[in-house]
Amino acid sequence: MKKNQSSLLEKIDSPEDLRKLKLEDLDVLAAEIRQLIIKTVAANGGHLAPSLGTVELALALHYVFDTPKDKIIWDVGHQAYAHKIITGRKNNFHTLRKFGGMAPFPKRSESPYDVFGVGHSSTSISAGSGIAEARRITSREYKVLCVIGDGSLTAGLAFEGLNWAGDREQDLIIILNDNEMSISPNVGALSSYLNRIMTGQQVMKIKAGMLNLLKTVPGIGDHMVRLTKQAEESLKAFIVPGMLFEEMGFRYVGPLEGNRLDNLVKNLSNVKTLKGPVLVHLVTRKGKGYPFAEAEPSRFHGVGPFDVETGRSASTPSGPSYTDVFGETVVALAKETPNLVAITAAMSQGTGLSEFSRVFPERFFDVGIAESHGVALAAGLATEGLLPVVAIYSTFLQRAYDQLIHDVCLQQLPIVFALDRAGIVGEDGATHHGLFDLSYLRSIPGMVVMAPKDENELRHMMKTAVALGGPVAVRYPRGKGEGVPLDEELRVLDIGKGEVIREGNDAAIIAVGSTVYPSLEAANILAERDIEVTVVNSRFVKPLDADLLCRTATETGRVVTVEENVLMGGFGSAVLELFQERGTIPARMTRIGVDDCYVEHGSQKELRKQQGLDAQSIAAAVVDLIDGAER
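Now predict its structure.
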């Protein structure tokens, strides 16, 4: 953003400053905020298209309502950058998503204007309902507003919140931000509901009759027809869509043009006086104000650094990512496995299933932001002889934990869970790290859990998972692979068998998944100090290679386990349990992983170093183990 004396944004340090502006000044301010968002995301990466689409909404909400006394809950938080900028954080906005800098999503500890911490979708209505009930119990007076996107509204949790809020009759304002997109294009009956209603025969007859009647009015008929066509979107809503929400107990307002500030401010000022539950339906444009994001909202939903002038990524690809390799592998497996189907939850591009959806459209299912439904759907498919591959981010599978236990593993159904973004994901921070899956998956009876050391092993693990015939999870990290050659022919691995990839007598490093190569690097560092260690690639977290691990512990007497997961109940815990059960207790043992904490945002490299998961830290842990044994 170019700084000049007439910059309105320079004068805005809080919503109180915003409310001093004239209404006509807000459009100028919106343009300045967009430039700051584009500039910052181009440098840092982030969620560009969603936040560009809601600049006017953020301004209007803080202009009309008395925040922070009035509470705004942003669902997910992808669209909250403008909110952050005008609530006292513009001077720190350049640190967005940086290590030690501004959080990527609303965070309660960061600002009193961030009423509820978010990162996963569809929580705003339930959280807002709780805040409204607390207001009633404490006899306080303030407004509660929940901002939720049409994509987030596809989740069952959102409907649970709507069902509750409509019945309780508390004052609650729900802002439905309808941009017809979540991350991938929206799917499902609710999404198509708003779009298809005008094509219904009854409505078409009514519409045609009205237009014919208007044309017969002398002098003004044609003018009235033009006005009616311009108002078609509003007419659509007044005839039918609002009925859904009205029947659920909400007063329906809309749809409104969500990128017109004068319209927003006027209507929100009226809504502010209404009592009971209200749903305001806004139609916004995702990526508004940046042509590249408007043209490709999916690509610019969440992006790395890019060139503002061209919209192209600032980084040069250095090889395929784990996601790319998974996507290519699952297509190859589907060609030789006719009953293989693939499922994603609104993340076909993010999980690498775009090509699968193109090659096998009849065998591909995008369930929307509905992970629980996706896993239960997979279970139903599996009962009829199909082999579902559920591609999902580790952090989002947490939302379907009950289905994993009761619907999949209890019935021992053959379902493959491909867990992308496992471990430390980087700048999206605490809500998006996949640091719990080893712990929550290994506790489920019947589940096989494996993690590849590189992209080539990922391909063999996918072949193994497809051939297994029971519940199995393959977890792999975000980002590029190790750059190793890929075997042409896929092979089935022996279940529960690891491999020794370096031998030494002084200690053993037993690693799994993304920590194997840093452990090998640590072994090289130690060798320069005349310390020779064995490095084991466990491959499997469940079942473990009991014979190999116990023999290694006995031979070296000193064991370090390494995992990119929380230590509580994770891979190291599994190894400890194995040693206890077998009576193989090494003289000294250290577990390296993530402590009992939430890891904040930063680059993967910075966070791995912070958590002791880089090669230097692993080597230091081995030295400490040896020194401690000798004292």
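Residues 9-186+242-295 form a domain with the Rossmann fold fold (CATH 3.40.50.970).
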